[in-house]
Write a structure and sequence with these properties.
This protein is 45% helix and 14% strand. A six-stranded mixed beta sheet has the order 3-2-4-1-5-6.
Amino acid sequence: MTTLVLVRHGQASALADDYDQLSGIGAEQGRRTGLHLEGLFRSERPPELLVGPRRRHAQTLAAMREAAGAIPDGTLAPALDEHHGVQLVKLLLPEYAERAHPFGEAIRAVQQGGPDARRAVGRMYQVALTAWMEGELGHPEIEPWAAFRARTRAFVASIAERDGARPVVAITSGGAIAAMVAEALGLDAPHALELMWSLKNASVSRLRFGSSRFGGSARRAHLEVFNETAHLGAEEHLHTHV
């Protein structure tokens, strides 16, 4: 029986020019996650460690290793890349800023600034990603939703094929984790997006691969843990979503 432990990166820099950069909070989240998972890597059958290609993925791993010496260097896994929603918004923002379109309205709300700026940014991405998922928004440079879902599905299938192999720990992003969990649960695209919005930074989710407990021989993914953050402690500022 193979287990896939999915770790979301620490808090990134949502309102900065470069989102793909851990904040100070994100680094602390990474260190606590490292301490939480260190026991796995000290076990008789330590897991294989895979890391996505984004800077925030590598920085999360670096923070984990800083706190937990048993955690090794990870192997780069391009399949763990996040969807390119952030890039899509940046590419389409000039074109839609003045349009009478829900995405344009969301852009203008962000531009107004004020105390609700962070909430407005979240709303802008929610509108854009929903429209992207439904095929209303797109760009030649951006991977379509169907291709993203196929990529994450193929990654899950590759882990499922490792019958009896050692566990796998994968550091990735919320969208990729949500897509994999949705695949295990048989959920459609809108529900996958809802899962993504709920995922906290440095959360741990776990899929187990094997036949159903109630019969059948087909190997498939079963969700055992979703969005676990107890290892971050009780401090409210460490429980973030960006």
